[in-house]
Amino acid sequence: MFLWQYLTPLLLIAVQICKGQQCDEFTDLNLGHAFIGTNIRIRLLLYTRENSTCGTLLSHTDLSDYPQFSLSKTTTFIVHGYRPTGSPPAWVNDMTELLLARDDMNIIVVDWNYGATNLNYLKAVENTKKAAANLTAFIEMMQDQGASLSSIHMIGVSLGAHISGFVGANLKGLIGRITALDPAGPQFKGTSKEDRLDSTNAQFVDVLHTDIDALGFREPLGHIDFYANGGTDQPGCPKTIFSGGSYFKCDHQRSVFLYLDSLNRTCVSRAFPCSSYKDFLDGNCLDCDEFGAAGCPVFGYDVTKWRNILLKLGQTKTFFTTNPKSPFCMTGYRVDVMIWNKESRWGYITIKLHYNGTEALATINHKSAKFMRYTETHLFAQFDKDVQSVEKVSVKFSTGNIFKPKYKLRVLQLRLTHLEHKERSLCRYDIILKADTEVTFRPIPCEGSNF
């Protein structure tokens, strides 16, 4: 009995320590819940640098029990989208950890899986405004306790993008930033701005589009809208329905993985303002002078560096291309070709850059280019990687038609200009490109043109 009097307090302390170390997890549902349908229920999971991998379930009415939740810091809300199978989003932990690696902030994962899990998509859409009302009340409580609306950043995926927009509208557009990753299209296309995300919902709204022909929203919605690969048919995603579920969701989900790459700073995706994807691929939109010394905006987390000028411009539509997998970013060069063939030639160009055993590849094949005597043909080459320096260049010309003669392209000058670096352009003079035959050479710094 004497020993038990001493052990009891120790056991109680141990229990409290264990409780303190317990992590709250994202709700894990299943297809059964989707069949039955779920009613809206919001759980807010807090992550900070002190508990970057261990979520803390927040109260919706009292923040006094969470000393790690600093209202003087930025608070980023991560809002997922429709969950037809009820499983937790596979990407949410990676996004949380990468954000915290970038900045010392509060991360709140908005778990509205009860409400998003339903085979009836229309019911999930209906729940978005209910979720937004809940989040609005929570942010107003934060504001009452000293938080600034300018310090709020909402990252919304699919339906989560519109939830973020509704929250911003409820708060008169005063929250600092909304990042929308492929905002949902079905049930939102053709609606008024009160019923979807809009650039007036926050002080700064940046939007990524990756599936505009199916699950995503086609039209611009923010101060800057990024269209990866034209906003549809993402490289590496299945092309036929025989690939199963990934055929339907791969393009849509790619938005998240592109954003994760931007957080990880694996590489940089420069986006070019343009009226259409065709003009972008044709190299008609490579002028970034309006953005000053910073150049064209970079997609992702760091686009806020261009915030002030983007706000002045009002709305900017940009395009960039990606690789099929991470690292997704590509490297752009302007390619100028001048020939001395008497007759015009039509065809495609493939270029490889070599450096220290590394090879970067660009295939310019979105359309057949026209080459004319003593006239520069301007092409936009997008390489799958950047190389530190260019030791050798390999070029191949093809007509794309096996029934036509094997033309030769007699090149007076081929000039390569890196769109990021400010070094002198690289050139090669007087070469003959036989159709479908690769020619490799060492480039030299370009001389002044005589033409």
TrEMBL record:
It catalyses: 1-hexadecanoyl-2-(9Z-octadecenoyl)-sn-glycero-3-phosphate + H2O = 2-(9Z-octadecenoyl)-sn-glycero-3-phosphate + hexadecanoate + H(+). GO terms for biological process: lipid catabolic process; phosphatidic acid biosynthetic process. Residues 38-328 form the Lipase domain. Ca(2+) binds at R196, D198. SUPFAM superfamilies: alpha/beta-Hydrolases. It is a peripheral membrane protein. It is found in: Cell membrane; Secreted. Residues 1-20 form the signal peptide. Keywords: Calcium, Cell membrane, Disulfide bond, Glycoprotein, Hydrolase, Lipid degradation, Lipid metabolism, Membrane, Metal-binding, Secreted, Signal. The active site is at S158 (nucleophile), D182 (charge relay system), H252 (charge relay system). It comes from the Eukaryota. Pfam families: Lipase. Coiled coil: none annotated. The keyword Cell membrane applies. One of its GO terms (cellular component) is extracellular space. One of its GO terms (molecular function) is heparin binding. Hydrolyzes specifically phosphatidic acid (PA) to produce 2-acyl lysophosphatidic acid (LPA; a potent bioactive lipid mediator) and fatty acid. Does not hydrolyze other phospholipids, like phosphatidylserine (PS), phosphatidylcholine (PC) and phosphatidylethanolamine (PE) or triacylglycerol (TG). Belongs to the AB hydrolase superfamily. Lipase family. This is Lipase member H.
